[in-house]
């Protein structure tokens, strides 16, 4: 497959010419922006499966929190204010303890962000072998409000814009590698790393504050390079970023340079925002970072589209570009 599998499937089977009274800018962004009678809403939908997106023994309270958080992160990338969500859940069996914890984690975040649960669907997962059912799957559709005519998408980055990223990147991936037993970290760093994996903070205030400033935005779910790559493709531009500027936590910085690179550039699941803004608005971006209590770091520059979409510098040299996460990368079409 010439294109990454997951996106090739969407393009081949789930992209159609617009029809009907409600239209959006088309797939490819974190949210669909839909104009309804003088109002604009942002809608996103994310599915998670235990065993794929969560370790099979993940704490159900964390699962509930994160299932909603990743959707709110898409709303943040659009600059929308969360208003409502719908929950579809498939369960292998009834386990009231698990459900109570799951619900507590999810609803605490829902309440703190004013995003109400307005509907959904509950079903049992299919039986896979002698009475055993496949693991839980959770699909959430979240909706948010946007000012009329506004909303951030992955299209709109212009040559000369700065590339920015919020917070630090790579921690969630480093946490996963540690949990899987492949990497290790100083014992006092582990809780911080695990918290980044289990409790990602959707950058809602930042996204909303960037509405009049950013030219494009995406949340970092697949990996910094992959999600920046989506911005570059949708905007028809190239970029050069400097790995030495990419913000990394103290915990990640205590790991080998190679691991730092793998985690920060290619590891997903951080739910930070990567965005672009005109160079002359850099001070405004910094002020928004202060006002929203969010670290924002300039990591590079957008350039005219060339045959190489993305160049990553480090010191005097260039780093190889590695792909982000793709659910169907290894499968043939
Ligand atoms: P994100 O990582 O922000 O959740 P994805 O990478 O999952 O976004 O999806 C990329 C784009 O493709 C999004 O605009 C999404 O709405 C769209 N998309 C994904 N799956 C489907 C599908 N089955 N049908 C239609 N559109 C889809
Ligand atoms: Mg997204």
TrEMBL record:
One biological-process term from Gene Ontology?
thiamine diphosphate biosynthetic process
Q: Which reaction does it catalyse?
A: thiamine phosphate + ATP = thiamine diphosphate + ADP
Cite the annotated pathway: Cofactor biosynthesis; thiamine diphosphate biosynthesis; thiamine diphosphate from thiamine phosphate: step 1/1
Which SUPFAM superfamilies does the UniProt record give?
PurM C-terminal domain-like, PurM N-terminal domain-like
Any Pfam family the entry gives: AIRS
Q: PurM-like C-terminal domain spans which residues?
A: 158-312
Q: What is its EC number?
A: 2.7.4.16
Positions of Mg(2+) 5 binding: 222
Q: Where does Mg(2+) 3 bind?
A: 30, 74, 219
Q: What are the PurM-like N-terminal domain coordinates in residue numbering?
A: 28-144
Extract the NCBIfam families matched here: thiL
Give the protein's recorded name: Thiamine-monophosphate kinase
| Source organism of the structure | Sutterella parvirubra YIT 11816
